[in-house]
């Protein structure tokens, strides 16, 4: 698809979705949406000011203090189902706009937005799994435990999958009875505007969800806002630490879904052909722009050459290019500074002494766009920066170990603990690994993400969980009522 076609197919917006209406911005600044494939401006949207944030918070507070929190869980579930219906109807359109503004191949966009539909539907039925009231007895008295909505939520989401990240937060927040001010990243605003259209079409009551794509300054104003009861954040660990410190100043509730440097452990008995079909997509899918990516691959020392050769051949054979081309496996990095960051880390890996097996540069023939070849390093020590720091690009480090004890130790020797995997035909080895690796999710003979179950991390990968019945917990307060 040419840049002209992109410009014709992507929407532009001049207003914000606040209070159930399309409202005029208070400022005159605009956000340029830049195609990562062509490096051209393909759309513009308004940039909010602090006054716009104040209006959005006021609208959310009015909706929360009004009828929304008094609706039944079943009624809120019906609203969530209608949101899912509207997104599902437009999944192909979402995928096209996602490809234009973020550079994800169409198949990735289809999967991300289908996942969003599933998240809304799952949360629509949480009232059948999670009890919001419980009656107990204590020394002859009746005690009622009531789980009430925490209040107005400020939800801050990244650019790598805006609608999916929004679904992770809007689903449980609305199911709990909260209202939301959603702040998407400025690099990927268009699909979240389309989400606003879906909310409007679904008949979400006025002010229950308000959407303001914006940068860090506006985001910090939202985090500090006294009208916000809870912050739900997905993004980098550095930004998460900043947000947690601000929330700590006023004891605001906070959940954080942060970075990762997840390890995939290949046991000595694993069959190579059974490993690569799931391991490689989990490492470099969506051009590695996934927090749960398996970017450290741990192999027995005796099998390093075997895996290096097979992984290198598979990665070098992947088609990198136009996200609108059905044959494309990897699109560009979403933004120029991210491409530059990945290139810097590849240079760091070389300087640290790691061996480049494949990739390491920009694909030949792609003179425009923020493209990077899928890259594999061997000779990586776990103390190297490329093994310890989140790169957020299509870069995999192959690390050797001697014995499963050392593999577990290497996997745990990380400031992160978000995801992981183990490949083995020995159930005893599998059980040891899943029991001893400190991570929020781990897969046996598979890799990826599972959005229908709790997702989140240990250590610097965050706090709290999203998805599954556990996902609603962060949006509820617990009240004890005792009757004498």
Brief descriptors of the model:
484 residues; alpha/beta; Aldehyde Dehydrogenase, Chain A, domain 1; Aldehyde Dehydrogenase, Chain A, domain 2; 2 domains; seven-stranded mixed β-sheet; six-stranded mixed β-sheet; globular; disordered N terminus; oxidoreductase; Aldehyde_DH_dom; Ald_DH_C; Aldehyde dehydrogenase; Ald_DH_N
Short description:
This protein is an alpha/beta fold. 39% of the residues lie in helices and 21% in strands. Strands 14-15-16-13-12-18-19 form a seven-stranded mixed sheet, sandwiched between helices. It has a six-stranded mixed sheet with strand order 9-8-7-10-11-21, with helices on both faces. The chain has a three-stranded antiparallel sheet with strand order 5-6-22, with no helix packed on it.
Question: Would you mind describing this structure in some detail?
Answer:
The protein has 484 residues and is an alpha/beta fold. It contains 15 helices and 22 strands.
Spell out the blueprint of helices and strands.
Elements: H1 3-9, E1 16-18, E2 21-23, E3 30-34, E4 41-46, H2 50-65, H3 73-89, H4 91-102, H5 106-124, E5 133-138, E6 141-149, E7 152-156, H6 162-176, E8 179-183, H7 190-201, E9 209-211, H8 216-224, E10 230-234, H9 237-250, E11 253-257, E12 262-266, H10 272-284, E13 294-300, H11 304-316, H12 336-352, E14 355-358, E15 375-378, H13 385-388, E16 395-401, H14 404-412, E17 416-417, E18 420-423, H15 427-436, E19 443-444, E20 458-459, E21 462-463, E22 476-483
Parallel strand pairs: 7-8, 7-10, 8-9, 10-11, 12-13, 12-18, 13-16, 15-16, 18-19
Antiparallel strand pairs: 1-2, 3-4, 5-6, 6-22, 11-21, 14-15, 17-20
